[in-house]
Design a protein that fits this description.
Layout lengths: L7 E6 L4 E7 L5 E7 L4 H12 L8 E7 L5 H18 L2 E5 L1 H8 L7 E7 L5 E9 L2 E11 L1 H9 L5 E5 L8 H13 L25
Helix pairs in contact: 3-5
Length: 213
């Protein structure tokens, strides 16, 4: 039987300028922390991650979860690559979790089971999704995607089930614990995804820029 000490899950959220890390054994020990790093994410991520897990060690981890976007192209890619590398080296499961699903989870309420989420995207679009949230987790009713604001509004206007609309904050690192909770729910169901299955979801192609600028 797996002991509490061994059943530790780690979550990384790097899809916004705010780094979020969460760790728990889902019994007696849980913690999370955020850092407003902005462009310093690449320089600080590995150091902060190494310090954050103490006094636990890498060998205490049973699974890892990572926010896969949508969000920052660079930050999301960095978090996913880090999580994939760790899961591969430790030979443990890696759960990819939508950044919008994590927000839905963190805003679950008794009044609304449907959570609609919107977040600014490039080219005057919005990243949007609608999730059904319950004790078993979150179910996408409208998948994550980039949509024009007028199309999104039409979708909401014709949505037949009462919903709560959430505008995602610019700094989303605090939802790292929701990333961890969603992964743990799947873990309890016996799901064990491979590190190879975790891919970043950008939602849009990066805007091309002049390399001279």
């Amino acid at each position: 039987m797996t002991s509490d000490r061994q059943l530790y899950g780690l979550a990384l959220h790097t899809s916004s300028p705010q780094l979020g890390l969460a760790l728990a054994n889902f019994s007696s020990d849980s913690r999370y922390q955020t850092w407003d790093l902005g462009r310093e994410l690449s320089a600080q991520l590995h150091l902060l991650l190494t310090e954050f897990i103490k006094p636990q060690t890498w060998k205490d981890l049973t699974f890892i979860a990572v926010a896969t976007g949508p969000g920052s192209f660079t930050g999301t890619r960095m978090g996913v690559v880090t999580a994939r590398t760790l899961a591969q080296q430790l030979d443990i499961a890696l759960f990819p979790v939508s950044s919008l699903a994590a927000i839905a989870r963190s805003h679950s309420s008794v009044e609304f089971s449907n959570i609609a989420i919107q977040m600014p995207a490039q080219r005057d679009q919005l990243f949007t999704a609608i999730y059904e949230v319950n004790a078993q987790g979150v179910t996408p009713l409208l998948p994550d995607g980039a949509r024009a604001p007028d199309i999104w509004q039409q979708t909401l206007d014709h949505w037949e089930t009462p919903y709560q609309l959430i505008v995602a904050p610019a700094d989303r690192g605090a939802s790292a614990f929701s990333v961890l909770e969603l992964a743990h729910l799947d873990w309890q169901l016996g799901i064990r995804p491979s590190w190879q299955d975790a891919l970043p979801f950008y939602g849009q192609h990066p805007v091309k820029t002049d390399p001279a600028t």
